[in-house]
Amino acid sequence: MLFKSNSNIDEEQIKLVENAQKRVKQRKRLFYHFSIMLFGIITLLILNILFGIKKEISFYNYPWSYWASIFWVLILLAHTYNVYITNRFMGKDWEKEQIKKLVLKQELKISKIKTELEKEARVKAESELFNQKNSKNLITLIAAASENNVIGKDNKLIWYLSDDLKHFKEFTKGHAVIMGRKTFESMPKALPNRTNIVITRKVDYLANDAIVVNSLSQALEKAAEDKQPFIIGGGEIYSLAIKIADRIELTRVHTELEGDAYFPDIDHNIWEEVSREKRLKDEKHDYDFTFIRYNKK
Fold this sequence. Notes:
Blueprint: H1 11-51, H2 64-86, H3 92-133, E1 140-146, E2 150-152, H4 162-172, E3 176-180, H5 181-186, E4 195-199, E5 211-213, H6 216-222, E6 230-231, H7 235-241, E7 247-253, E8 261-262, E9 271-279, E10 289-296
Parallel strand pairs: 1-6, 1-7, 3-4, 3-6, 4-5
Antiparallel strand pairs: 2-8, 7-10, 9-10
């Protein structure tokens, strides 16, 4: 079947299409049967009249064509019963199965929404708690992202931009840099001249020359003395931190690439662009890129 070669089509959709095709064939055969029967009965009756079949070879004084027609009608009724009753592809059992699957899908969606809401509520609570204690801090996200928001692949950078590295070093030097475990492990060592803070769910995780915490709020508490702590990745940490951040220092790399880590979308109803500086591709830079600063409105 053509449908089976398309992996984007759901298995249930394939099954529905195949059942619909079988149903169409069944009804076509029934229609052909009815048409042939109608034509056949009329033909038999005409032949009976034309050739004047004697009553001696009839049953109960009825012409043989009459009995043949009755027998054919009974066969058609049996065929109709078989199509609409016996071989219903989408009967009550199928309906029950589909309802069960729909209920399961809805439960999964509700569970996912509930998890997201709980996550947002937790981040909001952490944000309010932190802001109450540290109202003078300028929480800043710093990242380089492609046009389609890719920031990395296989826990590695996917471009080389010399000026962006300098930009990162100049901004973060002397400050606290907050990151996820995978981001920390992608580096050869802790970043020098900075307070490295690593967020991980792993218990008893050890990181050389870094402070290990278990949540974003704990990381921000450790950076409470820093007037501008920086969030440096990865994708999940950015998604959490963007809700409570005050500034974004974004290097927008003007290309679209494949990756497995992403920077969150920037909502322009919340964030205001305050500066930009474009740089062109050259021997030290793989792509054109732009330094953009956003402040929360």
